[in-house]
Specification:
By secondary structure, the protein is α+β, with helices and mostly antiparallel strands. It is 27% helix and 30% strand. It is globular, with a radius of gyration of 22 Å. The termini are far apart. The relative contact order is 0.19.
Length: 233
């Protein structure tokens, strides 16, 4: 009788342990840490801004009803910022650009990726396929594992960049407006031009908020998902 009870108890315990191991080996994060550097021509000067950020990509089996098999689960860091003095600050945000059909086609000619711009950025820079293209979980995980082994600086095509922005009033959080990477002069004045955006994988620590950010922007939780990472820890 006692032996039978132990066997009966052991079956659900073994099943539970098996489920834990199944999830443990099939659900995990791949971390991609990279430095983004912006180069801006301002008259006869080149001004730069740089920030190390880390993206976590959750790999989830297709048989779980939680959405895409690979998705951006976490973003840590702060938006790269170029200080143009009295003209204002240029931010490379974490938000995707709102594109019409023509711009989507233009972007897809250079690199196709169906996910958020910041999610796609490392793949676009290193020339690998966007993992959103393939529905097979093994292939998606292989693409991510291949990506983290790549190195060296790469220019990022302007057409695939996340949204650029500036504050009309740096003390007003609601005054953030979109800036075209192809026409910085329209927002900052004649002689201002975006020259390059460079991405390079690195082991350097994530960059803290820049010293030239206003105090309100440095506070935890401000502009989360736009100029600072998400979720907030």
């Amino acid at each position: 009788m006692k032996k039978g009870c132990l066997i009966a108890l052991g079956i659900p315990v073994a099943f539970a342990v098996g489920i834990v191991f199944l999830f443990w080996f099939n659900i995990y994060d791949v971390h991609v840490r990279y430095r983004l550097t912006i180069e801006v021509q301002d008259g006869d000067q080149i001004k730069t801004g740089s920030s190390v950020v880390e993206a976590s990509y959750g790999v989830v089996p297709d048989w779980l009803p939680v959405g895409p098999s690979t998705y951006l689960s976490k973003m840590v860091g702060n938006a790269p910022t170029v200080d143009l003095g009295e003209k204002g600050m240029l931010f490379l945000t974490f938000e995707s650009v709102s594109r019409n059909s023509d711009k989507i086609r233009e972007r897809n000619k250079q690199f196709f990726c169906a996910m958020e711009d910041i999610w796609c950025l490392p793949f676009a820079a290193y020339g690998g396929p966007g993992t959103g293209v393939d529905t097979n979980i093994q292939k998606r995980a292989a693409v991510l594992n291949s990506l983290v082994r790549k190195s060296g600086p790469r220019d990022v095509p302007f057409a695939v960049l996340p949204q650029l922005g500036r504050f009309r009033d740096i003390n007003n959080p609601l005054s953030l407006v979109t800036v075209s990477p192809f026409d910085l002069a329209a927002s900052f004045g004649a002689g201002v031009e975006l020259k390059r955006v460079i991405l390079q994988q690195t082991n350097d620590p994530v960059t803290p908020p820049p010293e030239n950010w206003p105090q309100w922007l440095k506070e935890k939780g401000q502009m989360s998902g736009k100029l600072t990472g998400w979720p907030i820890n």
